[in-house]
Design a protein that fits this description.
Layout lengths: L1 H48 L1
Length: 50
């Protein structure tokens, strides 16, 4: 029983690390989407001006 209690913090830490890694991947994808959207907006503006 005592071993289970001692494992709980490690399991929580592992879960937190997993969540952090997933969040970092999502943030990188969002950054990419924002950058692509800005490029498309700029392209659209340049095309309209011509």
């Amino acid at each position: 029983m005592e071993n289970n209690i001692l494992e709980i913090p490690n399991q929580l830490l592992d879960g937190q690390n997993n969540t952090s890694e997933k969040l970092e991947r999502i943030e990188r994808k969002m950054d990419s989407v924002v950058e692509q959207t800005a490029d498309l907006k700029e392209f659209r503006t340049e095309t309209k001006e011509q």
